[in-house]
Amino acid sequence: MAEIGYTMMCEQTPARQLVDDVVTAERVGFDYAVISDHYFPWLEEMGHSPYAWSVLGAVAHATDRLPLMTYVTCPIMRYHPAVVAQKAATMGVLSEGRFTLGLGAGENLNEHVVGHGWPPVNTRHEMFREAIDIIRELFDGGYRTYRGEFFDIDSAKLFDLPDRPVPLAVAASGDQSLDIAAEYGDALVSTDPERELVEKFAASGGQGKPVYGQLAISYDPDRDAAVERAHRLWRWSLPGWKVMAELPAPVNFAAATETVRPDDVAKKVPCGPDVDAVVEAVRQYTDAGFTHVALVQIGSEHQREFFDWWEKELLPALRRL
What end-to-end distance do the CA atoms of the chain give, in Å? Predict the structure, then answer.
């Protein structure tokens, strides 16, 4: 079966709890953990957005075996790619080889804060390709100078490198980003269980490489409470990536989802204590060729109950998948 991961969802969880929760995730049998890397939450109701890389450093120290990964970091505006390379290499050292750098072309929500505007998607992909070039060059060691259309580096060198280069997982949702993932990625990241995307990745050079997906669920013994929470905190996800990448602030996500009903969210997000519903949702990913699926439990105040349910009921059911 696919490896099942735990998601440290920074947009809904205080920083110290993120560390405590992933320690529990390791103890109760998750296979790996991913972390979101945002400046803002999607909705004000989510209430948090600590700096993911500080959390990762603490998590690397607090865990022993769990592979870790950003899901995903954008290296084109808020962070210069040379800085991303340094952060990732340091995480490779701190985690003793347990870290994968997940990269994506970003969202206006997080990148506009540096005041450079939000370029069109074709430009973002050109910037993304150039940024990955720089990151890979720096991972190879030695002094590097690079002159690009969007980024430059001048005699840059990473002095602390892990024993093996940090793997790159590249997020893709369409043909342009898929081409980049196939060229540069040691793994593919995709939010939806799209078999066609996985097959194109394999045909373009990704055969046999890991494919990462993510599944949001809202566990609660009371299904009505689970649906209410999913609607309150997760309705932002329904417009889809082409909309989500362009909206600049939580208020815009709130306005874009004013007409989303609780039942609309419940059709996309397994809600309540139904183990079979989650197993079937994971099966959609495995049937599409995904090798890894990271679960997101919606609502930071319900993580402990989720872990108990996972360990006693959900994990055994998923192992039988």
Answer: 6
Annotated catalytic residue within 11, 26, 107, 130: 107
Respond yes or no: is residue 26 known to be catalytic: no
pLDDT, mean of each 10-residue run, the chain (321 residues): 95 98 98 98 98 98 98 98 98 98 98 97 98 98 98 98 97 93 97 95 96 98 98 97 96 98 98 98 97 98 97 96 82
**Interacting residues of 246 by C-beta distance below 8 A, sequence separation 6+:** 108, 118
Which residues partner with 8 through β-bridges?
A: 35
**Sheet strands (E) in the chain:** 3-8, 32-35, 68-70, 99-103, 144-147, 152-156, 168-171, 187-189, 211-217, 292-297
Contacts of 101 (CB under 8 A, 6+ apart): 69, 70, 73, 84, 88, 91, 135, 166, 167, 168, 169
Token output for 86: 């340094």
Question: Out of 3, 11, 26, 38, which one is annotated catalytic?
Answer: 38
Residues contacting 69, CB < 8 A, separation 6+: 5, 32, 33, 34, 35, 99, 100, 101, 102, 169, 212
- pTM for the whole structure: 0.97
Q: Of 49, 103, 52, nearest to 81 (Cα)?
A: 103
Distance CA 313, CA 306 (A): 10
Rg (CA), the chain: 19
3-state secondary structure of 120: coil
What CATH number labels 3-319? 3.20.20.30
Residue 217 CA to residue 306 CA, distance in Å, equals 10
Question: Is 107 one of the annotated active-site residues of the chain?
Answer: yes
* Cβ atoms within 10 Å of 194's Cβ, excluding its own: 18
Name the 3-class secondary structure at 301: helix
Partners of residue 3 on adjacent β-strands: 292
